Amino acid sequence: MIESDVYVMEGSLLPFQEAGIPFETYPVAYDLLNWGEDERMLVITTGTVWGAVHFRAEELASEPPLDLISWEEMQEVSVNFRSDNVKLLDLEETQKETFPDVSLISNPGLYRVRVYAVGRHSGIDMQQVGEHLDERYLMQLWGESKARPSTPVQTIGDRN
Asked: I need a surface site. Which of 1, 4, 26, 105 has the fewest CB within 10 A?
């Protein structure tokens, strides 16, 4: 499990890339969760442009039940990781010292990735690590035997 407050910078993207594989271009990111066509980079599109967000990732043995209460949005994609060295990076690779140096997965292979988000539409920027962060993410990863289509971003939960 990885849990950390991380800074997002211009571009509002948190990429998860198979470490050691360079990327020439950034994938176009329209959804909450985007898997690059070249299958080298998984990208979360954040609401905040500058500032900190809270991020948690957990690799699970099997598909967990949906949490339709605690979160505002969710999306799922199938991802085939060719390496077990999949790490959190920023687009410019300028924050290597502040990002957890732990792989998101223990084995290469086909995974289903679910991302939950809350606070993406809060309009709050410039939050700092250590503050109560309005924008938070949970990424759940589990192995699967057959790829499934990506889901659209779904609005869930009752946050009123």
From this structure: 1
8 A C-beta contact, residue 2 and residue 102: yes
Q: What is the mean pLDDT of the chain?
A: 77
pLDDT value for 81: 87
**Predicted TM-score (pTM) of this structure:** 0.82
Rg from Cα positions in the chain: 15
Distance CA 127, CA 144 (A): 36
Q: Which CATH class is domain 2-155?
A: mainly beta
In the beta sheet, which residues pair with residue 118? 136
Q: How far apart are CA 115 and CA 96, in angstroms?
A: 23
42-67 pLDDT tens trace:
778 788 777 788 889 999 999 999 99
Domain ranges of the chain: 2-155
d(CA 96, CA 4): 13
Residues for the chain: how many in total?
Answer: 160
